Each structure stands twice: as C-alpha cells, then as structure tokens.
Amino acid sequence: MAYNIDRNARCAVVGHGSWATALVKILLENERNVGWYIRNRDVLEHVRKHGTNPRYLRDVRFDPGSLHLSDSLDEVARDAEIVVLAAPSVYLKTTLEPLTEPLGDKFIVSAIKGIVPDDLITVAEYVNRRYDVPFDQIGIVSGPCHAEEVALERLSYLTVVCKTLENSRILGDKIRTDYINVGHSTDIYGIEYASVLKNIYAIAVGIAVGLGYGDNFLAVLISNGAMEMSRFMSQTYPSNRNTFASAYLGDLLVTSYSQFSRNRRFGLMIGKGYSVHSAQMEMSMVAEGYYAAECIMKINRQRGVDMPIARMVYDVLYDGASPSVSVGRLTGRLL
Amino acid sequence: MAYNIDRNARCAVVGHGSWATALVKILLENERNVGWYIRNRDVLEHVRKHGTNPRYLRDVRFDPGSLHLSDSLDEVARDAEIVVLAAPSVYLKTTLEPLTEPLGDKFIVSAIKGIVPDDLITVAEYVNRRYDVPFDQIGIVSGPCHAEEVALERLSYLTVVCKTLENSRILGDKIRTDYINVGHSTDIYGIEYASVLKNIYAIAVGIAVGLGYGDNFLAVLISNGAMEMSRFMSQTYPSNRNTFASAYLGDLLVTSYSQFSRNRRFGLMIGKGYSVHSAQMEMSMVAEGYYAAECIMKINRQRGVDMPIARMVYDVLYDGASPSVSVGRLTGRLL
C-alpha cells in the first residue's frame, strides 16, 4: 500500500541554519503550528524570547506561539508526521544521533544539498538505510532558492520531489505562499545529485572569478557545468528528466551567479590565493561544495563519468594543486 | 564540388561597432592584412590617423599599416575572399546597399545576432537569397563573447559554424589566439536562432531585475528561457544539437547575466518604468533584442511554438503592456 501524506500532518524542521530558518518561515504561512528542533540552547532561548534567529535571517520574525520549539529531537519528532531535515550534510549524522524515536511511520523531507560523508550516499538513501524509512515516505525540497531572498519575500520557486505526485502535491500545498511557487517531480535521484553537483561548480566559478576570468569565460564554464551534471545523471541513473528545468539548471545558475552563494564566495577566496583552511575560517557558514567535491570524486571512482570541472575543484581543494594551473588546464577541456 | 576556404584567404570586416572592432583585433593576431569597411568618414579618418576606433573599444590599438581601410564597400569586398559581416541586423540591408561587387565566389561570415527585418529571415538566409551565395560558402561566428572582454584580452570562446567542419577549422585558425578558444559546429540554423532568441530573453531578465525580482527568480526565468530556446529550435528545425553547449546556453548566460549586456540594460530601464522610446534614447548602442522580439513573434505566427517569455517581451515593448502585470502573469507559466 502506498503511503499517503495526510493533509493535516504536522511538520517539524530539524536545524537552525539559514535554510532551516527560511523553511520554518515558509511553513508558518500555511500551518498553525510547526515543530522546530534547535540543539543550541542559546539560539533556542533567543527564538523563544525574541521570535528571531540570532544567527541567520535575523529580520525574519516568528510568532513563538505557533512554534513548537525544543532541544529534544525525540520530542520534536514524536509530535510531527512530517520531519524536514535542514542541517548541513556533513553534520547530519551527529544531528540525528540523539534520536531514539522511530521514523518508519513518518514522512521525511530532505532540504539538504549534500552527500553523507563516509557513507557516500545521498540523504534520501541514508534516511532509508539508517532509519528504515521506505522511499515512498521520503521527499526532497529543492531550489533555486537562496534563503536570504525568502527572508525578503522575493518570488522563488521550489520543487517538491516525491515517489508519487500525489504526496508531492500535498507537501507542495504546505509550502506554497505568495512568494513561493511550487513545482513537482518524481526524480529523487537526479534532483539530489543536481543539488550536490551545483555546489561544486559554483566553487569552480568562484575560483575562476578570483583568478580574474571574465563573464565570457564564466558563461562557458557554467554551460559546461550543466553538461557535466547532465552527463553524470544520465550515465549513472538514466531517466527522462528535463535538465533545463529550474531544479537542475536553475539551481546551478543561482548558486553560480548569486551574490548570496557561499560556495561561489568560498571558491573566490581560493582563486584569490587564500589557503583552503583560511577560506574556511573566513566563512561563517558551511560551503557544502567543499565536502561534495571529495564525496563525488569517491563516488565517481566506480562510475567513471568524465568530470573535468569537479576533478579540477577536487585537485585544488584536496590535492594542493595550483588554482591558476588547474583552471588553465581545464580551459582546454571546455566546449 | 564543395567550396574549400583557402588557408591564405584575405579577410575583411564590414561594420565599425564594438563587435566589428573586436573582430578586427582578433583577426590581426593571425593575419598580416585585414580589410575594414567603415562607412563613417570621421571614424575612418580617426582609425587611419590614431589607430583606434573613437567610438567603441577605444583602448584597442591597431597598426594602421596592417589595415586595408576604406569607405568603399566594393573596394573592400574586391580585395577579400572572406567577408565578415558585423553590422546590427536592422542596418544590414542599408549597410550592404552600396555593394555592386558580386559575392558569389566569396566566403561570407555572419557575426550578426539578429533577424533581417521585413524579410524575416536570418542573416545567412538573406546573404544566400539576395547575393546568391550558396550555403556552403556561408559561416557564422558566435559567442558567448562580449566585445568589451575581447578588448581586455580575457579568455573567451567562439564557435565557428560552417556547412563543413573543414571550412570551420580553417576559419577557426584565423580567429584562434591566446585569449580566444575556438569550437566548431555545423548547425547554422540553430546557432543563428539561439543568438537571436537569447537577446530577447536578456531583455526579459532586465525587465524582471528592474521590477525588483531577485536572483532566485532570475535563475528560473533564464532556465525557462533556455527551455523555450531549445523548444523553438527542436520544433522548427530538429537536429542532434546539444543546447547545453556554449554557443547556445553559454551565449544566453553571458547576455542575461553580464554587466556588459546592452539587452539586459535596455530591459532594466523598461522594468524601472522608462518608456521604450526613452530607453532607446538612453542607449548609445542598438539592443538587438528589441528588433528580434518583433521578428520572432512574426516568424512564430506560422510555427506556433509555445513562447511565453518572448511573448511577454513583445507585449511590453510593442503592445504597451504593463511590465509588472506581464511578468506577474508570466510567473505562472514557468517551471
């Protein structure tokens, strides 16, 4: 029997970064009560007392009366039928560690753009394996959507991905607002990987900008990133997907071009000569692409897809390769 | 018998705008002598005397000794075997009017991104019909390439398109430099239309930016522009083209995102409330997309491709439609 999400299912968000904060804001436009797991006590108390997240999207005001705030993951999970994961992939396992509540009868939504390190699997795969959640109880919410613009209520498009379009529609109704348009898809694999890969390509763009390459070259680099993304997906998991759609190409574009892109900013520092360590110190947020670059290279060892851009980023970030020499060599590989 | 370009064929450029100026600079990196037809006497005299174009890319210096400058189109055409057309499409017919020299035994290269108005055909088609030049003697040079970055010698990629890859390679050798990488294609139809359509989409992007839409929305709009472009080409002239390649998607990206894009700038003024007429007055250069918007709507009357973005731009520019209402309506059509 297929799992059907109940229209009245209560939602909870796990995480307190900028994207988690934006998702709570979005959900509260439609739901009377939203659970929110915030592990950090100071942040939790601040949200409870002032109705704002002191660290991210500080201008977004919440009515604490509509929030079920807790630093107990079990409590938050117990009271929700839909659990939205929005912590950086690199911290996902430690974030979920305190959980003893079973997830097998819940619907789990990943809003995470990354691979689970060590396991080298996507978040959907991890939730399935580790928590025995069947794939028809797992969904994805994907951009192109920088949280900062959600805070500003600028029109953005989210794609909801579930095994069945029916569940995707019910979930979509919970996040559709005046400033959020919702699209639907069933391509969990493709959209998870697209959102992982785009962060790597945004780092490549940042590196090129930092080295002084101009707009003409960036357009070539990003087009080739789109091709590389499309090639990876069609060679590893063929499907009738339209990779020009927002959840694939659009997500790559916003991450590569937007001033809000932390992955591009991280790459920019590398291109300007910062060491990987100093660039990380300068960033107050996690650049998912840094971890993704290593995971994808490991995953691709078996698959053998031709990925010159992801390889360049890996060589620069993990192998001490010179950014200028590596990008220079890459220029001969682009179409 | 197929026409083969002679490796030693002399080149001449027709036009003195920024792209024509950049092409002369590029050709001079490989050729000892380049013809240059400049109709305007003041500009011609300035180039002859000072070795710079007084109006565009003023920092680019030419050795007048390597230039065969003339305000006689016949003279320039007579002395060249390869004639590169680089005038705005809307002025192409008047630019070529003084020509009495036959072109039938020459190789004609179009570096123009537009439709010939009234005739509603591409430049390649016009050259073929009006000057009896067979299609195997017609080529295209396409970006993503803003002339301003050629002036700065920032690495850029050009795609050379000819009926045969052999001619494309010989032509490519004439424009390959340290800062110009060259790709090849035989898709004259597709690349001509891509370079026409992308200007319309860049105006759409400008309008949206002028209205206050953010990066998240732009990524969706541009992805949908790429889909619309791809749909137009596959429905009107199916072929095995890879529309992710630089000459299609890359050209759309640089025109949509670059600060050097005059089409985006033109749209921006419209979005901010300028009338079409005032926006045109403010621009010192032709925004090709303005003319393209009308031509494509006329061409599409018979073809009936679904083109909501091009339609929106047409309605705003030619039908007095409100930019905010029109973009608002469009948002419901995007994926």
UniProtKB/TrEMBL annotation, chains A, B:
What is the top-level taxon of the source organism?
A: Bacteria
Per its record, what are the GO molecular function terms?
A: glycerol-3-phosphate dehydrogenase [NAD(P)+] activity
SUPFAM superfamilies given in the database record: 6-phosphogluconate dehydrogenase C-terminal domain-like, NAD(P)-binding Rossmann-fold domains
| Reaction(s) the record says it catalyses | sn-glycerol 3-phosphate + NADP(+) = dihydroxyacetone phosphate + NADPH + H(+)
Tell me the leader sequence span. Answer: none
Lipid biosynthesis as a keyword of this entry, yes or no, is yes
Transmembrane residue ranges:
none
Query: Keywords of this protein's UniProt record, alphabetized?
Result: Lipid biosynthesis, Lipid metabolism, NAD, Oxidoreductase, Phospholipid biosynthesis, Phospholipid metabolism
Which Pfam families would you find in this protein's record? NAD_Gly3P_dh_C, NAD_Gly3P_dh_N
The enzyme's E.C. designation: 1.1.1.94
Q: Which residues form the Glycerol-3-phosphate dehydrogenase NAD-dependent C-terminal domain?
A: 187-324
Domain Glycerol-3-phosphate dehydrogenase NAD-dependent N-terminal, by residue range, is 12-165
Sequence similarity: Belongs to the NAD-dependent glycerol-3-phosphate dehydrogenase family.
The name of this protein is Glycerol-3-phosphate dehydrogenase
Q: Which organism is it from?
A: Alistipes hominis
The taxonomy runs: Bacteria, Pseudomonadati, Bacteroidota, Bacteroidia, Bacteroidales
